[in-house]
Amino acid sequence: MSEITGAELLLRCLVNEGVKFVFGLPCPEVDPLLAKLEQYQVRFVPVRHEAAAVHMAEGLYKTTGQVAAVLGNPGPGSANLIPGVITARHEGVPVVVITAQHRLGIVYPSSPATFQGQDQLEVFKPVVKWSGPILSWERIPEVMRIAFREMWIGRPGPVHIEIPAPVMYAMGDDAKVRMLTPDQYRAAGPRASQSQLEEAARMLAGAKRPIVISGAGVDRAEANEAMLAVVELLKCPVIGTIAGRSSVPVDHPNFLNGYGPGADLARSESDVILVVGSRMGNLDIPYDKYWGDPANKKLIQVDIDQRNMGVTRPLALGIVSDAKSALEGLLRMLKTEHARPKGGEDTQRYREISRKWFEERFAPVAAWRGPGIHPALAMQAIGKVFGSDSIYVADGGNTSLWAAWFLPSTKPRSYLNILELGMLGTGIPSAIGAKLGNPAREVVCVSGDGAAGFNFMEMQSAAREGLKVRTVVFAEGSWTMEEPNERMLFGRTFGTEMGTVRWDRVAEGLGCQPFYAERMEDLEAALNGAKASNGPAVVCLKTNRDANLAIPMELGIRFAEVYQGPMG
Q: How far is residue 89's CA from residue 207's CA, in Å, rounded to a whole number?
């Protein structure tokens, strides 16, 4: 007989599911788990704040598909996980949240005398897909199977396990453990039916002006190749959602930016629209003024989760399915239907409209000569230095918008943003998670100074772990995105001034290579210096606030409509 602790049995369950990273902080209640990680080739990455642990897991999953575990110590340590967990829920990120707990005699419920006595199950239930305790050694494998099954039902998301210290330390006979592989207790899927694929193929093959809308779900399902094959077979336009920027190359000859008159015209003229891996939420301007009369077009939606179906546009056909299998099946059916290319003239017409509009609206960027640094020109310089093979992580308000418009086209799973929940401060820890999963690739975080302030201390985590993360902070000392509304309605600003921070100097104190630029002519040298660094590097850019505020009016109105509804 060989006895193992509950912690080791839990670890075996995690490894069985492919977990290779654990993010969090140590405490006596989880020490038996941490003591065994190296033996099972699982890497422990300590953090400076527990919320950042979940954001690291987010960056790892979005770029590799790997699931990580995060740890929360009893009381405040577990409470600190909550912002990250809420973000993961909105972003569709699977992560195993493990909270430690005291001895059973003083919890469930806790009396007022219990130090750090928090009913963590009740705290986590509203923000995870599933939450449950493990109260005995024998049930660890069973409860972990329940958790992972719930994690992968429909749209993935975080699940929560609570383990009191006595269960972690408990001993049991490992010969009695029944460990099942994932395919032995949960099924793949869901999958589109043959009849659904045939119907979708008939609709697209018979369409006069079909278009495809590609969301983040295409990226997550690694369905990019199949999606582009459908687009190229039909020779139709493809619009990437704002959250799914890396699901389709922005330099593809059929690509249309969703925020502009070319995409508006394509949507309004289309008779059949295929939406894959997107909920078509408010960020994707789901109003009739940008789509035309829904009675004159048929919408086919493919999504992993039934709850995302038809939430903003009426459906002609809803297919609950994994995006990759659905698109591969649809491609086969289109070939069977002998679908004819629709001709590229419409696509070229839409692209030309988009090109002219973009050049006109952003003409001030091309003509800008200072003072200071324009965020759009900085994004172009970052793209020039780091190239299209890098992973980019965008964080912040206006900074994330400039990034979406001006960073280069990227590979699949290579552009991370915060445009589903909109949580600031995810960028640096997400970049760390992305680098851990992709050690051979450049990982570049672009962040506003407001967003950087949330989790900048994690750059010390990057230094400690020897991770060559490159962080570029656009620093102007203001919550700039909040200024226009205040100025327009009240003629002044309030609460937007943050003060000047030299992020490069802070970074140096954290063990990172520091770089600073306050003129355009100094920008590329600073970026190249960061790229050549042997460890993590931070570039502080003195950006011009007026330039950051100079978002084209039409684009500003569209973003305002996210909050206020259709205008005009």
A: 36
